[in-house]
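Kindly draft a sequence, keeping tokens residue-aligned:
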Amino acid sequence: MSDASGPPFRADHVGSLLRPKSLLDARARYAAGEIDAAELRGTEDEAIADVVRLQGDVGLSTATDGEFRRASWHMDFIYAINGISKVKENIEVHFKNANSTIDFTPAGLRVDGPLSIDEPIFGPDFGYLQSQVSGAQTAKLTIPSPSMVHYRGGAAAIDPAVYPDEDSFWDALSAAYRQQVQAIATQGCRYLQLDDTSLAYLNDPAQRAELAGQGRDAEHQHERYIRQINAALAGRPAGLTVTTHMCRGNFRSSWVAEGGYDFVAEALFGGLEVDGFFLEFDDARSGTFEPLRFVPPGKRVVLGLVTTKRPDLESKDDLKRRIDEAAEHVPMEQLALSPQCGFSSTVEGNSLTREEQSAKLALVVETAQEVWG
């Protein structure tokens, strides 16, 4: 498919892809001390070259490295920011699915020094991706939004000797992100995505109650996050498309939050200075399309209608019907289609095979071609 509409493209995807067994085995051998970092990176290179070809073969114009060099969609990046340290105390995140609950316990973080990003995080990784894409593909870099640094720990994770108040912390964090955005654009990046679960979580009354119990301003947290993301993107280079992806959690086919985008919609869609929104709409817990009425002209909404949490392949007719329903709230020319999240936000991945993943991606491309031409 030749898609001149984006980025974000009429047929797009969020970013992470299932890791092949060869890569999982290499990571295990590296952890056991059986291979060195150079051998691991060589295996990563081979796997990334293969998955870039896969994306091209199914007709996608977007190419990511599948986040194959990461253990997690966000923490690898966050720990690479100067002034942030990993701490022994784990964070407990409670995920759920149709049959059970799963606890995800990543290490915590501490802001214990001045925040900065001197060299672009994932710069060499993105450089390798750039070397592998074809002329029909646009390389996309996915990184966590600045909100995720705060949402994971809040004020309690900030050393007051470094930043005596949250305003000084936010000023420094947004400035560090501006360094990242400028540097990666200088490297040639033309498509950057800020992944942000917090702005979706805040739609869930249970999540807001949990934050309020920690002493946070749950009713206005999203407004602060929107301001700080905008500050991070201030002065971004011309020609750099920036999108954000907002889902309610994705770990081993499970999720955290529920509820539509209603609570944040007006402030988010009307105020966040990005070019497009990747939104999760794969089932009833994602709410209705009504919040899309706040999307202004000129911004693209990428409808995440194809689930990455289950292998069952969606009906093309059902997808078209739901696109038409969304078009009642935002013009059809502003819409696009993608899976609702990544296939492997963490190294473990969701409960699909690589063949089922490819079928989902191909379905997105075929449906978009039939809808938009």
Notes: The mean pLDDT is 92.
